[in-house]
Request: fold
Amino acid sequence: MCLAIPVKVISVEGTSARVIIEDVEYTASLLLLDDVKPGDFIMLHAGFAIEKVDPREAAETLQLLLDMEKNRTN
Amino acid sequence: MKYVDEYRKKELILSVAEKLNTISKKEIVLMEVCGGHTMAIHRFGLTSLLPSNIHLISGPGCPVCVSSQHFIDLSMAYSRIPGIIITTYGDLIRVPGSSTSLEKERAAGSDIRIVYSVLESLEIAKKNSEKNIIFLGIGFETTAPATAAAILQAKKDKINNFYVLSAHKIMPPVMKELVKEGVKIDGFIAPGHVSAITGTGIYNELASVYGLGVVVAGFEPADLMQAVLMLAVQIETGTQKVDVQYQRVVHKEGNTIAQQLLNEVFVHGDDRWRGLGIIPESGLKISDDFSSFDAEKHFFVEIPESREPKGCICGQILRGLKTPVDCSLFAGKCTPSDPVGACMVSGEGTCATYYKYRF
Amino acid sequence: MQKEHNILLGHGSGGRLMHELITEVFIKHFGNEILNDQTDSAILTAGSTEIAFTTDSFVIDPLFFPGGNIGKLAVCGTVNDLAVSGSEPLFLSVSFIIEEGFPVRDLEIITESLAAEAKKAGVLIVTGDTKVVNKSKCDKLFINTAGIGRMKKENLYISKALNLQSGDVIIINGTIGDHGMAVMNARESFNFKTNVESDCASLNHLINEVLDKYPVKFMRDPTRGGVATVLNELVGKTGLGIEISEPDLPVNNGVRAMCEILGFDPLHIANEGKVLIVAGENYGLKILEVLKNNEFGKKSAIIGRIVNDHPGKVVLRNETGGRRIVDSLTGDQLPRIC
Reply:
């Protein structure tokens, strides 16, 4: 569905994670996600971490797009 | 903002647009079923970048829009019970019921509070032990797990004044229903965050039985353009299947913890979708094991027969059969400040989006 | 306006609903030539002198927020209304409506801030009033300030938006959405922690520095309803169009992030230390330079221009070159999950 934003995990305490984006900090619930470590990026939706962002997949997607840009005719 | 800004770069978006214009020849209709996608497409002006043979239509992806009039009227009625605090996501505040809205009830004295997380409702419940807190549970599979987690937490913490009125719904049945009804759809842009929870198996039938391409897309403009490209390629080459553009967040098996919580707390039941009627097995009802948190099992109110507003064609818009500009009320009698139907009031409803981003 | 039975919070948000309330209730009953202009300050003639007169009430919750408090705001708000009409703010009145039981210590802190801001702005508080009401008859503290300023004849046209034409530039003196976001954060139970601070500041000295050097065609401070609402008022008044450029809008990273999280639009969020200036094309960069030399103008930017296209509409061109319409704020902004 919708409004979720990638945020960085600063620290983890039990079922909560302190997360940050720009200078905005929030205590996100980890009731829906485990194996979260400081430095991970998670998608924040309605106060919950719903999934991790996979940096390798992100890089791959970005590379596909960059390749398309390189091959532009204009 | 990391993982956001990179996918908003103009050059990348235009590159995909260029490739699309080169390879996509067939007249195709692609449906997105996610309010977040509707918003993103219009916010970033993506329709103007697509070749004229690709038509994007919006489906019933806005959970507020498809919440039944009955649910809305019930929420209003609950808010008028003395000693009740209603907690809700902001999306619901201005949705018009048959005769009123939560905003108007708040103006008339009801205690209605906007929360960002359902867990704030638990805090409110703890701080107001003499009151009953009812949380309005709207949203699809992205948001329902949060409600499930809150109910489990309430049980654990022995909070006995917290209730949920569930209007949660799931996507696959309604997608199938639209296809079965014969709505002209050549491919689906599947909701990225719903799929992050559910995994991609839920779309297999659409591909294998109905031969439709389904691509799970992210929410940044480059994500959406890339997803459209993937669908166009599938259709041009006759290789329709379920695929994932949003690979950095969506895995085939989804979020199994969230799925477990959903299965523990909710059961599937037939549900009324506004404008679409009853869709079998499409709603999430609170299971008997957790009935002590089910608002409908505890609070009984008389509500007038729900009526659909005259002239409102939200139902056809939600099916992708008509667009907002086809509605006689659009931008005249029905505007964001004076909405008639839910499609206009919800910030990501098709009509609200068209209105906000009309040009 | 659909005749509401009760006033909604949206009627006070500074957007379309409030505008309708003012027109269909207040102006209907006591409108006159001066009032009907609905400018930030009323321009009055007293003998051979022109004076600007304005009033504002402050009901902010919470009373204390990052970057200020209701006292500081009570001065800035009225001083700025006077300054953006091109007048020199001179005198203020201050009225307090205090809830029984309100701590005197808090009142002192607020008053100290109020006094300090008045000194900074160079205005004298010359009259006032104090009322105390029973517990729960008002929310802790409300303040009203009214202000008088001296108009220079050459500035009389500024609030009237005359002589605007295609090509005129639209300038803002810094980042948008700070105040509204800071206050919302301090008030709601959402529990976000951020460095976002209210931008509330008296801008009369800044504006004076500009007016001393260059002609300005129009000014207004984008408070409740945000930049979008002021720009829509402008196109409504002039019948011209406005095009603004999204990449050129100065927005703090923290505000931007909060907007993404909650689904807000910075163009609709209140500012209390910002002025929108419309000036001839030739003066744009020069005015920018003056602004940037002032502590309240460091992040000034040209955000758009007046155009002949799409008359009566404000259009935003986004980073990808797409365009969309920017409306006035309708009702309160609501955080979304979707």
